[in-house]
Amino acid sequence: MEESSPTQWAWAADPGMGMWCASLTRGITPHDVLARYGADSRTARLLTRQQAAQLSGTEGSVLRAGTLDAWAFCFEEYGLMGAMPGPLSALSQGTETFSVLRGGDGMNSFAYWRDGQCIERFEPGFAGTRPPAPHPWWDMVQQQLDAAGTEYPGLVPVLKAVALHTDAVLDTDTLNGPLLTLLLDDNSRTPDPPPQPHPTPVQPPGRFLGTVVPDPLSPPAVIYAIRPADQHTQGFKPEE
């Protein structure tokens, strides 16, 4: 990736920028992106960011899709479909997908999906959300956060970490320009896949009756269960 400039990430560094979500998928087209979100890409139009703002409604999300070399992206302002398991599972089928979300409640997220499976997901900078090792994307994102040198660096370092891998920069000029745009209703998005079942520990049959030891008065092959009431006596008495 070429050396980044401040203007490239101006949109993400803008303190007035509200909630947003961006996904980046290798080797598919913008029409593919919209379809994998659950939209009919034939209804999409080329609109600028300013024009797309007029489509915003109370329900649904405005999806804006384009390409950055070998990668296709989808950007949402005031939307989070690109952070949900359904679209991410569909986007990453046969390829890989990154998702970066700035949440409206102040909670941000990063996710990396491959072949329909979530490989890593965490809240950047919050150690309590670090995935089990190995976690290469946590390490790469944290390295960029540390390099920022500020207590609250925002999500620009996260976008830089993704760009170092993809060599694709989602810059301000790209977002402001014309992109394939449509409004997708919440009920029409790709549904989330069913949760993976967790293995249930196998329990032995019956219930625990106490420790079993040989009775010294019985043949060696015969064993008895000790009753709790008999444990204080000298020796062991077999149950009747």
Automatic annotation (TrEMBL):
Tree of life domain: Bacteria
**Known InterPro entries for this protein?**
DUF6461
Write the protein's name.
Answer: Uncharacterized protein
Report biased composition (Pro residues) as residue ranges.
191-204
Q: Where is this region: Disordered?
A: 184-213
